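To: structure desk
From: M.T.
Subject: fold request, one chain
Message: Could you run this one when you get a chance? Sequence is below, nothing fancy, just the single chain.
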Amino acid sequence: MPRLPVSLHSLLIQCAALFLAACAFWLFARFGQTAPGVWPFVLAQGTLAAALSVLLRQPVWWPPLHFAFLPVALLALRSGLPPGIYLAVFVLLALFFWSTFRTRVPLYLSDRKAWDALAALLPADRAFRFIDLGSGLGDVPLQLEKRFPLGCFEGTEIAPAPWLISRLRAAIRHSRVIFRRRDYAALDLGAYDIVFAFLSPAAMPALWAQAQTQMREGSVFISLSFGIAGQTPDETISLSGGARHMLHVWRMRQAK
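Reply: Done. C-alpha coordinates follow.
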Protein backbone atom coordinates (compact mmCIF):
# COMPACT_ATOMS: atom_id res chain seq x y z
CA MET A 1 0.00 0.00 0.00
CA PRO A 2 1.36 3.52 -0.83
CA ARG A 3 2.46 5.62 2.09
CA LEU A 4 -0.60 7.36 3.51
CA PRO A 5 -1.27 9.36 6.66
CA VAL A 6 -1.86 6.80 9.38
CA SER A 7 -5.36 8.18 10.04
CA LEU A 8 -6.42 7.65 6.39
CA HIS A 9 -4.65 4.27 6.29
CA SER A 10 -6.62 3.11 9.34
CA LEU A 11 -9.90 4.48 7.99
CA LEU A 12 -9.42 2.50 4.77
CA ILE A 13 -8.73 -0.66 6.81
CA GLN A 14 -11.96 -0.17 8.78
CA CYS A 15 -13.95 0.41 5.59
CA ALA A 16 -12.44 -2.63 3.87
CA ALA A 17 -13.20 -4.84 6.90
CA LEU A 18 -16.75 -3.51 7.01
CA PHE A 19 -17.21 -4.32 3.30
CA LEU A 20 -15.78 -7.84 3.67
CA ALA A 21 -17.95 -8.59 6.71
CA ALA A 22 -21.04 -7.31 4.90
CA CYS A 23 -20.25 -9.50 1.87
CA ALA A 24 -19.81 -12.57 4.07
CA PHE A 25 -23.12 -11.99 5.86
CA TRP A 26 -24.89 -11.32 2.55
CA LEU A 27 -23.64 -14.70 1.29
CA PHE A 28 -25.10 -16.35 4.40
CA ALA A 29 -28.50 -14.86 3.62
CA ARG A 30 -28.17 -15.47 -0.15
CA PHE A 31 -27.73 -19.21 0.30
CA GLY A 32 -30.57 -19.60 2.72
CA GLN A 33 -28.61 -19.49 5.94
CA THR A 34 -29.90 -17.53 8.89
CA ALA A 35 -27.78 -14.39 9.11
CA PRO A 36 -26.12 -13.93 12.51
CA GLY A 37 -27.10 -11.00 14.68
CA VAL A 38 -25.50 -7.61 15.13
CA TRP A 39 -22.81 -8.66 17.61
CA PRO A 40 -21.40 -11.51 15.48
CA PHE A 41 -21.23 -9.03 12.58
CA VAL A 42 -19.45 -6.41 14.70
CA LEU A 43 -16.95 -8.96 16.04
CA ALA A 44 -16.32 -10.34 12.55
CA GLN A 45 -15.64 -6.82 11.26
CA GLY A 46 -13.23 -6.18 14.14
CA THR A 47 -11.40 -9.45 13.52
CA LEU A 48 -11.03 -8.68 9.81
CA ALA A 49 -9.81 -5.14 10.54
CA ALA A 50 -7.21 -6.43 13.00
CA ALA A 51 -6.06 -9.07 10.49
CA LEU A 52 -5.70 -6.45 7.74
CA SER A 53 -3.73 -4.26 10.13
CA VAL A 54 -1.31 -7.12 10.80
CA LEU A 55 -0.98 -7.97 7.09
CA LEU A 56 -0.25 -4.32 6.25
CA ARG A 57 2.38 -4.20 9.03
CA GLN A 58 0.94 -1.39 11.06
CA PRO A 59 2.58 -0.80 14.46
CA VAL A 60 1.71 -3.37 17.12
CA TRP A 61 -0.78 -1.15 18.95
CA TRP A 62 -3.06 -0.79 15.91
CA PRO A 63 -4.58 -4.32 15.55
CA PRO A 64 -6.20 -4.21 19.03
CA LEU A 65 -7.53 -0.72 18.27
CA HIS A 66 -9.01 -1.92 15.00
CA PHE A 67 -10.61 -4.92 16.68
CA ALA A 68 -12.19 -2.83 19.44
CA PHE A 69 -13.32 0.16 17.39
CA LEU A 70 -16.73 -1.00 16.14
CA PRO A 71 -17.69 -2.97 19.30
CA VAL A 72 -16.88 0.06 21.46
CA ALA A 73 -18.85 2.33 19.13
CA LEU A 74 -21.88 0.00 19.33
CA LEU A 75 -21.68 -0.16 23.11
CA ALA A 76 -21.50 3.62 23.26
CA LEU A 77 -24.57 3.99 21.03
CA ARG A 78 -26.57 1.59 23.22
CA SER A 79 -25.44 2.97 26.55
CA GLY A 80 -27.75 5.96 26.60
CA LEU A 81 -25.07 8.24 28.01
CA PRO A 82 -25.61 12.01 27.76
CA PRO A 83 -23.98 13.52 24.64
CA GLY A 84 -21.78 15.71 26.83
CA ILE A 85 -19.94 12.60 28.04
CA TYR A 86 -18.75 11.83 24.51
CA LEU A 87 -17.59 15.42 24.03
CA ALA A 88 -15.67 15.33 27.32
CA VAL A 89 -13.98 12.03 26.42
CA PHE A 90 -13.09 13.35 22.98
CA VAL A 91 -11.54 16.52 24.40
CA LEU A 92 -9.60 14.54 27.01
CA LEU A 93 -8.22 12.12 24.42
CA ALA A 94 -7.38 15.01 22.10
CA LEU A 95 -5.39 16.74 24.85
CA PHE A 96 -3.28 13.59 25.31
CA PHE A 97 -3.10 12.18 21.78
CA TRP A 98 -3.98 15.01 19.38
CA SER A 99 -0.56 14.90 17.69
CA THR A 100 -0.32 11.11 17.36
CA PHE A 101 -1.86 10.93 13.86
CA ARG A 102 0.68 13.45 12.56
CA THR A 103 3.80 12.32 14.42
CA ARG A 104 2.94 8.58 14.64
CA VAL A 105 4.33 8.69 18.19
CA PRO A 106 1.95 7.42 20.91
CA LEU A 107 2.34 8.24 24.59
CA TYR A 108 4.91 5.80 25.98
CA LEU A 109 5.91 5.80 29.64
CA SER A 110 9.36 4.66 30.77
CA ASP A 111 10.10 2.86 34.05
CA ARG A 112 12.73 2.72 36.77
CA LYS A 113 14.88 0.23 34.85
CA ALA A 114 15.24 2.77 32.05
CA TRP A 115 16.01 5.61 34.50
CA ASP A 116 18.72 3.57 36.21
CA ALA A 117 20.29 2.55 32.89
CA LEU A 118 20.28 6.15 31.71
CA ALA A 119 21.83 7.33 34.98
CA ALA A 120 24.76 4.97 34.41
CA LEU A 121 25.51 6.78 31.14
CA LEU A 122 25.53 10.34 32.51
CA PRO A 123 28.62 12.11 33.90
CA ALA A 124 28.49 12.80 37.63
CA ASP A 125 31.58 15.01 37.80
CA ARG A 126 30.80 17.76 35.30
CA ALA A 127 28.02 19.93 33.94
CA PHE A 128 26.02 18.76 30.92
CA ARG A 129 22.77 19.46 29.08
CA PHE A 130 20.23 16.67 28.69
CA ILE A 131 16.97 16.73 26.73
CA ASP A 132 14.16 14.20 26.58
CA LEU A 133 12.40 14.35 23.19
CA GLY A 134 8.72 13.59 23.63
CA SER A 135 8.99 13.80 27.41
CA GLY A 136 5.41 12.72 28.14
CA LEU A 137 4.61 13.14 31.84
CA GLY A 138 8.20 14.18 32.58
CA ASP A 139 9.43 11.11 34.45
CA VAL A 140 12.87 10.83 32.82
CA PRO A 141 14.22 14.35 33.47
CA LEU A 142 12.49 14.64 36.84
CA GLN A 143 14.02 11.40 38.05
CA LEU A 144 17.51 12.07 36.69
CA GLU A 145 17.68 15.64 37.96
CA LYS A 146 17.64 14.38 41.55
CA ARG A 147 20.78 12.31 40.91
CA PHE A 148 22.81 14.84 38.91
CA PRO A 149 22.89 18.30 40.48
CA LEU A 150 25.42 19.50 37.88
CA GLY A 151 23.17 18.55 34.97
CA CYS A 152 20.74 20.84 33.16
CA PHE A 153 17.64 18.84 32.23
CA GLU A 154 14.94 19.67 29.69
CA GLY A 155 11.96 17.95 28.15
CA THR A 156 9.94 18.78 25.08
CA GLU A 157 6.40 17.55 24.45
CA ILE A 158 3.86 18.62 21.85
CA ALA A 159 0.68 17.12 23.37
CA PRO A 160 -0.96 19.68 25.69
CA ALA A 161 -2.07 17.46 28.59
CA PRO A 162 1.23 15.59 29.20
CA TRP A 163 3.15 18.86 28.87
CA LEU A 164 0.90 20.58 31.42
CA ILE A 165 1.15 17.64 33.82
CA SER A 166 4.94 17.65 33.59
CA ARG A 167 5.03 21.41 34.25
CA LEU A 168 2.81 21.00 37.32
CA ARG A 169 4.93 18.14 38.62
CA ALA A 170 8.07 20.23 38.23
CA ALA A 171 6.45 23.17 40.04
CA ILE A 172 5.25 21.01 42.94
CA ARG A 173 8.72 19.53 43.36
CA HIS A 174 10.46 22.91 42.95
CA SER A 175 12.41 21.22 40.16
CA ARG A 176 14.89 22.94 37.87
CA VAL A 177 13.75 20.89 34.86
CA ILE A 178 12.53 22.99 31.94
CA PHE A 179 9.58 21.56 30.02
CA ARG A 180 8.87 23.08 26.63
CA ARG A 181 5.76 22.61 24.53
CA ARG A 182 7.53 22.38 21.20
CA ASP A 183 8.03 19.90 18.40
CA TYR A 184 11.54 18.48 18.77
CA ALA A 185 11.99 18.82 14.99
CA ALA A 186 12.12 22.59 15.52
CA LEU A 187 14.89 22.37 18.13
CA ASP A 188 18.64 22.59 17.61
CA LEU A 189 19.97 19.34 19.07
CA GLY A 190 23.49 20.76 18.89
CA ALA A 191 22.77 22.63 22.13
CA TYR A 192 22.72 19.38 24.13
CA ASP A 193 25.31 16.89 25.32
CA ILE A 194 22.85 14.00 25.72
CA VAL A 195 19.71 13.57 23.63
CA PHE A 196 17.23 10.90 24.75
CA ALA A 197 14.17 9.67 22.86
CA PHE A 198 11.44 7.10 23.50
CA LEU A 199 9.33 7.60 20.38
CA SER A 200 8.34 5.02 17.74
CA PRO A 201 9.89 3.26 14.75
CA ALA A 202 8.12 5.68 12.39
CA ALA A 203 9.85 8.70 13.94
CA MET A 204 13.40 7.37 14.11
CA PRO A 205 14.70 7.90 10.52
CA ALA A 206 13.91 11.63 10.50
CA LEU A 207 15.19 12.06 14.05
CA TRP A 208 18.46 10.30 13.21
CA ALA A 209 18.94 12.58 10.20
CA GLN A 210 18.35 15.58 12.47
CA ALA A 211 20.80 14.25 15.06
CA GLN A 212 23.50 13.65 12.46
CA THR A 213 23.08 17.15 11.08
CA GLN A 214 22.93 19.02 14.38
CA MET A 215 24.64 17.12 17.20
CA ARG A 216 28.25 17.90 18.11
CA GLU A 217 31.17 15.50 18.17
CA GLY A 218 31.32 13.82 21.56
CA SER A 219 27.62 14.23 22.28
CA VAL A 220 25.46 11.14 22.88
CA PHE A 221 22.19 10.08 21.28
CA ILE A 222 20.13 7.48 23.18
CA SER A 223 16.95 5.73 22.07
CA LEU A 224 14.84 3.53 24.32
CA SER A 225 13.45 0.39 22.62
CA PHE A 226 13.63 1.63 19.02
CA GLY A 227 16.71 1.27 16.85
CA ILE A 228 17.53 2.90 13.53
CA ALA A 229 17.54 0.85 10.34
CA GLY A 230 21.05 0.48 8.97
CA GLN A 231 22.70 2.14 11.98
CA THR A 232 24.53 -0.08 14.48
CA PRO A 233 24.63 1.52 17.93
CA ASP A 234 27.93 1.91 19.75
CA GLU A 235 26.36 0.24 22.76
CA THR A 236 23.17 -1.57 23.66
CA ILE A 237 22.01 -1.95 27.25
CA SER A 238 19.41 -4.59 28.06
CA LEU A 239 16.78 -3.61 30.62
CA SER A 240 15.89 -7.27 31.28
CA GLY A 241 12.63 -6.86 29.42
CA GLY A 242 13.56 -8.75 26.27
CA ALA A 243 15.31 -7.66 23.10
CA ARG A 244 12.75 -4.92 22.47
CA HIS A 245 13.25 -3.20 25.82
CA MET A 246 16.80 -1.85 25.71
CA LEU A 247 18.78 1.33 25.33
CA HIS A 248 20.50 2.01 21.99
CA VAL A 249 23.46 4.39 22.40
CA TRP A 250 25.28 6.30 19.66
CA ARG A 251 28.29 8.53 20.36
CA MET A 252 28.51 11.22 17.72
CA ARG A 253 32.02 11.18 16.26
CA GLN A 254 31.91 13.77 13.54
CA ALA A 255 31.20 17.44 14.14
CA LYS A 256 28.32 18.74 12.03
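Reply (cont.): The chain is about 45% helix and 15% strand. Let me know if you need anything else for the meeting.
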